[in-house]
Write a structure and sequence with these properties.
single chain; 275 residues; alpha/beta; Rossmann fold; 2 domains; 5 strands; 60% helix
Length: 275
């Protein structure tokens, strides 16, 4: 992974550079404390990940994130700041930031979050490859039994041994894998209508199953945030910021709970299907 760092504190850039280099997370392709210079270099260097301080002079971090994602939405943004304002952090997420960590910099947290970002990007690539295979080579017949086995394995890995929605999930994901072009144009409700006379109830059943997995993964992350299962699924089936919110709830640090995005959950399951 190519990584670019933008921070007006030279000590922070040196610390981040050392962490990333020592642990061989990726290649530092550039670093600066100048927002305008960052924009020009990021356009040219095309990094995979940009680490941005929210409180930058000239162009603040939120403005910088907005500019980066506007000209290259594929770049993933890790924002860092001492700011704890929910409003400011929410704005950064809305502009396209992917993850957020607090200052002072904690090496373990940096490593963990960067690992999550890499997992997220690799899962996204897998999903795109699957879509391209179906788009350009036609629509292979789906082996429903095989799909059931593979989905069941993923659900077991996130602690869901049995769910009342399992059979529906198998059918929905099989349909998504076999019909990627059509599915991209449909809402979750539209997809559920193909399998139930009451799509709202089916969507709620899938959401409850996904929420069980979110809670299980979050407990796992609280106990060991470097656990392989946690690192594998926390960003492929869920948005990591929601997993982190659920972890904060479990720790008693927040009254908010992590939310499930049903489409993200179903597309994440589909990314693991091999036919």
């Amino acid at each position: 992974m190519k990584i670019y760092i933008v921070d007006d504190d030279n000590n922070i850039t040196r610390i981040l550079e050392q962490i990333i280099t020592d642990k061989r997370i990726g290649n530092i392709v550039g670093l600066t404390n100048d927002s305008h210079k960052a924009i020009d270099e990021i356009r040219f260097l095309k990094p995979d990940i940009v680490i941005v301080d929210l409180l930058m002079p000239r162009i603040d971090g939120i403005g910088l994130i907005g500019e980066i994602t506007e000209f290259d939405p594929e770049i993933k943004i890790l924002m860092i700041s001492q700011v704890t304002s929910k409003e400011m952090i929410t704005k950064a997420y809305e502009k396209g930031a992917t993850f957020y960590i607090n200052k002072p910099i904690n090496a373990v947290e940096v490593l963990n979050v960067l690992a999550e970002m890499v997992n997220y990007m690799e899962a996204d690539k897998r999903l795109k490859i699957i879509r391209n295979v179906f788009d350009f080579q036609g629509m292979p017949a789906t082996n429903h039994s095989s799909v059931m086995d593979q989905i069941n394995e993923v659900l077991k890995n996130i602690g869901i041994v049995k769910s009342s929605a399992s059979e529906e999930i198998y059918r929905v994901v099989s349909y998504m894998v076999s019909n990627p072009a059509q599915v991209r144009e449909l809402s979750v409700k539209d997809i559920c209508q193909r399998f139930s006379e009451n799509p709202k109830i089916l969507e709620q059943k899938i959401r409850r199953t996904a929420a069980m997995g979110l809670q299980n993964l979050s407990y796992l992350g609280v106990e060991d945030n470097l656990n392989e299962v946690f690192l594998e699924y926390a960003n492929t089936l869920y948005h990591f910021k929601e997993v982190k919110t659920e972890m904060d709830f479990i720790r008693g640090r927040s009254d908010d709970r992590g939310k499930v995005n049903v489409r993200k959950f179903l597309e994440g399951l589909a990314s693991y299907i091999q036919i």
